[in-house]
Amino acid sequence: MSAIKGLRLDKGIPMPLYEQLRQGLLSAIMDGTLPAGSKMPTEEELCAAYGISRPVVRQAYNALIESGHVERKRGVGTFVLASNSRGRFIDKQYSFEKEMSILGLPHETRLVREEWLDGAEVFFKDQTPYAGRVRHIVRMRYAAEKPFVLVENYVPESVFPGIDTYDFAVRSLYNVMETEYGVHIARSHRRLAAILADERIAAALGIEQNAPVMMVENLVYDQYERAVDLSREYLDGATKTFEFQVFNS
Known about the structure:
Order of helices and strands: HHHEEHEEEHEHEE
Radius of gyration: 21 Å
Structural class: alpha+beta
CATH topology of the largest domain: Chorismate lyase
């Protein structure tokens, strides 16, 4: 295989060769030179094309696997993953900003609605309601200028007084929790369900009403085992996939 169009390595600069290769391959993935589903060059092909060693290629590939841009299929090769796949993050409690940073995707958050609700109207998985008022925050998130996820959070005023003074189109909710209130996210109980898009969800995601939607519900606990956030995320069920690592106990 010949060199990839636009990918250049410079052995005379301080940046490590594996990082130059990683960035070059990532650019080729993002601009469509290496489209989703395509097979990546083998280690041998890249070594021959750029005069580099296999450990350099292997380190670059391992970084791309870790960031979720490619996957290695044993005995077959390495393949480009769709850039809008959310699957690798389902077992991690990442902010949207961190997910997008890992994926290397431009992103934007738009505030849809904010309101105060009676906590008695908001139930956890065990049907225990919040006490007092709850801030209901609805945001639409975009990745690479395309609808990515509609997310709504229910946050108790008793834990976060004054939470309504922050602009969550600009700031991360979890960053505000940590930096302004000293609340650290310790764990969450996560539930996945397949639902049909109602009018509101369909309009936000740009899909047909009654199309399949994946709902991810999170009940989030802080370092004191307090429930500090109940969130529901809605993703287009036709384009998003979820993958898990399962270990034998």
